[in-house]
Specification:
Blueprint lengths: L2 H7 L9 H9 L1 H12 L2 E6 L2 E6 L2 H10 L4 E2 L2 H11 L8 H11 L5 H5 L2 H15 L7 E5 H18 L5 H22 L14 H23 L9 H7 L14 H15 L1 H16 L1 H14 L4 H4 L3 H13 L8 E4 L3 E3 L2 E3 L4 E3 L2 H5 L41 H18 E5 L8 E4 L1 E4 L4 E6 L1
Parallel strand pairs: 2-8
Antiparallel strand pairs: 1-2, 3-5, 4-12, 5-8, 6-7, 9-12, 10-11
Helix pairs in contact: 2-3, 5-10, 8-9, 8-19, 9-10, 9-13, 9-14, 10-11, 14-17, 14-19
Length: about 450
């Protein structure tokens, strides 16, 4: 049953269990959030299965929750437990002192300076995977699914930067299928009434164990190969993880444990490739439908007259197109929640302890109060001399202490992919295609696939 009926007929606080609403949120989070905003304005107060859930739709509120009141909110423990049952205890699945320590040790490894050191690995992966998937002879055309292409490229990038390892098409496909199947299973488990113990037979368990084995084996093999030799001269993320130390006074220069290194490799896979793949698929779709911008990008690259990756990755219009693509199609839209640790007031709304608050990134990014003509692709919004964007209105990488650890990594990676594609290919949507509707499949995906005609220049 559609949510419209249930929430229009009965004020939200009187909904008995809110099960139809829960189902709507589970199956169509974007549609549900849109409807809640239309109906309730800036704050929607819901009661689902006796749980208080507040949606905050204004940028000021998002900012207050994530930044100003950061110590009054934590990530939901149930969500962390479900993710931990897949990934172990890493920077994404822990809270408190454990998270603090891991985040502190990992952060320097993802600084802009350190990420610049991964650029050559990224670039090699981009060249190899694009050449393997797209025509290499000038004038030749291929019709490809954008998601298939970007999955291959971003999987290559993450494997190359993590382990200095050049994967094959078959392996990239196997690993990405496993990660996505695990992501979907974790989404399902989030909505189950209990977190099933390991021994209990439950729907999807056998497939989950099989897919987990694929990822664990891959990670173990690379860590073992690296640690079995005494010399590690690599410039990759694994090298960084093995060398990272806690330099906080009193921490004794401690490293991550072997298990933590494994579990953090897992999250870098899980958080790192599908998000960037989603962003680049939508970017390709937007380039295919905005040939004038493609021309401007080519002029920008030509005018820069450089092959230095660091300069290319910083080109303003190139970056603006990627930022605007992530505004229109934010990859991480679902599950952006926090739980109040104590009674707190957000704006003028009292939020009682234990309330689950939702920050609906999609709605924030499409709010006409922050972005004029919010559904129109306008990269100039993100050029250096554009008017400032309201704080809290643009959150593709989150904000506050949990903001995306891989933000610089992803930004550089996406700029290099975009520059490579723009320089070597012309894009158009495949015949009869329009830009598809987005759908949340953990990250934001094109609902009906996005087929593009790509011609080598
Ligand atoms: C376009 C690409 C990406 C997007 C849109 C994205 C988005 C996000 C968002 C919104 C969060 C915050 C979640 C929250 O506050 O609850 C996050 C966290 C995180 N991201 Fe990303 N991400 C991207 C790429 C990456 C990459 C490439 C990596 C690693 C190589 C990465 C690693 C992480 C990790 C480890 C966290 C957890 C941080 C913490 O809780 O301390 N992400 N990401």
């Amino acid at each position: 049953m559609a949510i419209t009926t249930s929430i229009e007929q009965v004020p939200s606080r009187k909904i008995s269990l809110g099960l139809s609403l829960l189902r709507h949120i589970q199956h169509d989070p974007l549609g549900a959030a849109k409807q809640l905003q239309q109906q309730y304005g800036d704050v929607a107060k819901l009661n689902i299965l006796f749980r208080r859930i507040y949606y905050f739709f204004s940028p000021e509120a998002a900012r207050q929750i994530l930044v100003d009141h950061q110590s009054d909110f934590v990530r939901e423990s149930r969500q962390l437990k479900v993710f931990a049952s897949f990934q172990g205890k890493n920077v994404l699945t822990t809270e408190g002192a454990d998270w603090d320590r891991q985040r502190r040790i990992l952060t320097p490894g993802f600084s802009p300076k350190r990420v610049a050191g991964y650029m050559d690995l990224m670039n090699a992966a981009i060249h190899d995977s694009v050449s393997a998937e797209l025509p290499v002879e000038p004038g030749k055309t291929a019709v490809v699914d954008a998601d298939f292409l970007t999955t291959r490229v971003t999987m290559d990038v993450i494997l190359r930067t993590l382990f200095s390892y050049a994967t094959t098409q078959a392996e990239a496909a196997k690993v990405s299928i496993a990660i996505r199947a695990l992501s979907r299973q974790s989404m399902r488990e989030l909505f189950w009434p209990i977190i099933p113990p390991k021994w209990l037979p439950y729907p999807g368990r056998a497939a989950k164990l099989e897919q987990l084995k694929i990822i664990h084996t891959l990670i173990d093999e690379h860590i073992q190969a690296r640690t079995s030799t005494n010399t590690d001269s690599k410039q990759d993320v694994l090298s960084m993880l093995l060398a990272a130390r806690d330099d906080q006074p009193g921490a004794g220069n401690a490293s991550l444990s072997a298990q933590e290194i494994h579990d953090n490799c897992f999250v870098l896979f899980a958080a790192g490739f599908d998000t960037a793949s989603s962003a680049m698929s939508w970017w390709i779709g937007l380039m295919a439908t905005h040939p004038g911008i493609v021309e401007q990008l080519r002029q920008e690259i030509t005018a820069a007259n450089t092959t230095a990756l660091e300069s290319i990755a910083r080109l303003p219009l190139l970056n603006a197109t990627i930022k605007e693509a992530m505004r229109l199609y934010p990859p991480s839209t679902a599950l952006f929640t926090r739980v109040a640790q104590k009674d707190v007031v957000i704006g003028d709304t009292p939020v009682a302890k234990n309330t689950l608050v939702v920050i609906p990134i999609w709605n924030l990014h499409h709010d006409a109060r922050s972005f004029a003509e919010p559904n129109v692709f306008r990269p100039e919004r993100f050029l250096p001399d554009a008017p400032a964007i309201p704080r809290g209105a643009y959150l593709p990488f989150g904000a506050g202490p949990h903001f995306c650890l891989g933000q610089h990594f992803a930004s550089i990676e996406m700029a290099l992919i975009a520059a490579h594609l723009i320089q070597h290919f012309d894009f158009a949507l495949a015949e009869g295609e329009t830009l598809p509707e987005p759908v949340v499949d953990l990250v934001l995906k094109p609902k009906s696939g996005l087929r593009v005609r790509v011609t080598r220049r």
